Amino acid sequence: MPELTEEMVTDALKDVIDPELGYNIVDLGLIYGITIQNGQVDVVMTMTTPGCPASNYIQEGTQNRLLDIDGVKDAHVTVVWSPAWDPAMMSDDAKRYFGLA
User: PANTHER family, per this entry (predicted)?
Assistant: First the structure.
C-alpha cells in the first residue's frame, strides 16, 4: 500500500461536489489544510457562506470520501469560517468555468 500523501487526498476530494455550484470543493478553494499522520487524515475546510444550506452534505461527503481512500484509518473534518471564502480562492480552472477569468 502506498504511503498517503496530500496529493492523494486532494485528488480524492475532487470527487466531492458542492451541489449548489456543481463544482468540486478542491477547485472551489474550500480546502484550507490537510494533515496526515499514521493513517489519520485531518481536513480543515470552509463553505462558500456561513449559512450554506449544503454544509452538512458537503462535510459528510468529505468525511466519507476520506474514509474511502486506501490507507486511511480515520478522518476528521473541521469547518472554519476564518478566513472567509472568496471567489479569488478558486483554481484557475474553476474561475474560467464560472466566467471569472
Answer: FE-S PROTEIN MATURATION AUXILIARY FACTOR YITW (PTHR42831)
Question: CB-based contacts of 97: which residues, under 8 Å, 6+ apart?
Answer: 23
- Put simply, whether the predicted model's pTM sits higher than 0.90 gets the answer yes
Range of the domain at 43: 6-86
**pLDDT recorded at residue 101:** 82
Q: Residue 48: CA atoms inside 13 Å, Cβ hemisphere, count?
A: 19
Which residues, in sequence order, are CB contacts of 80 under 8 Å at separation 6+? 32, 44, 45, 46
Confidence (pLDDT) at 26: 98
DSSP state letters, 40-80: EEEEEE--SSTT-TTHHHHHHHHHHHHHTSTT--EEEEEE-
- Residue 27 inside a domain? The answer is yes
Nearest in space to 34 (alpha carbons), one of 67, 53, 10, 58: 10
